[in-house]
Amino acid sequence: MLDSRTAPYAALLLRVSLGVMFLAHGFLMKILTFGLAGTMGYFGSLGFPPLLGAVVALTETAAGIALVLGLWTRLVSLLAVPILIGATLQHIGNGWVFSRPGGGWEFPVFWIAALLVQAGLGAGAWALDPARLLGHARRPQTA
Q: How sure is the predictor about 102, in pLDDT bands with cuts at 50, 70 and 90?
């Protein structure tokens, strides 16, 4: 049974935490630390099209912003899952524990689970509602 008094705030905490993680991973690490050229080079060294590195970095950054603000939370959460599936597949051969050389697979798998929970819960409290911002009345999302 969900507690309707706390569930919207639990969803908010999860949403903002996921958003901050995406900003740290996409914007701080891939864009500011390695740069788009470095990220693209890394993706190319793994056998992927280098452009995919830029797409992933920009998508993670956009997902982080959307989640922190509470914009299209369910959709963004679901659309981010394939990125984490790719990360899981990249790290699965390294074994358990993400601090191992090359990183383990448990962190991206947990991130997938958290995104799916967020998609199920919705945006929660203090989320921007694009429909309301565009003048389309809608029932507020509670969880």
A: confident
